[in-house]
């Protein structure tokens, strides 16, 4: 999206939607000083341009039984496109994998996984992660506390 079309009103609208995507247009308009129609047009333009990709619900993972988060760093034995594609597909099939990044540096992947507890993580390793062909090395770290978590750099 071209920056000249992404002004302070668009940023203000996005901040409101990031806080609660169910906020009524009338409320958004009042908060940002624009008419309901103007807000709707801006939201539609940002959606059409791909800046707004979806509307979703934030879930407290602990409330639904996933008490722990594990960061797993993985190195693959091969870096062929076929190996990378197969590894990506395998991660897609594991519901506990929340995010996976192909990274530079000592490891190839940085993966964030939600688990119920250490036994659940052990099960996931044995039954799912270690069954993916091509993993040469992995390193796991349990998250002790989340200090900051945001989806965008927009501030309030």
TrEMBL record:
Keywords recorded for this protein, A-Z: DNA-binding, Transcription, Transcription regulation
Protein name stated in the entry: Lrp/AsnC family transcriptional regulator
InterPro entries: AsnC-type_HTH_dom (IPR000485), Dimeric_a/b-barrel (IPR011008), Tscrpt_reg_AsnC-like (IPR019888), Tscrpt_reg_AsnC/Lrp_C (IPR019887), Tscrpt_reg_HTH_AsnC-type_CS (IPR019885), WH-like_DNA-bd_sf (IPR036388), WH_DNA-bd_sf (IPR036390)
PROSITE patterns: HTH_ASNC_1, HTH_ASNC_2
Superkingdom of the source species: Bacteria
Gene3D superfamilies: 3.30.70.920, Winged helix-like DNA-binding domain superfamily/Winged helix DNA-binding domain
Pfam families per record: AsnC_trans_reg (PF01037), HTH_AsnC-type (PF13404)
Domain HTH asnC-type, residue spans: 1-67
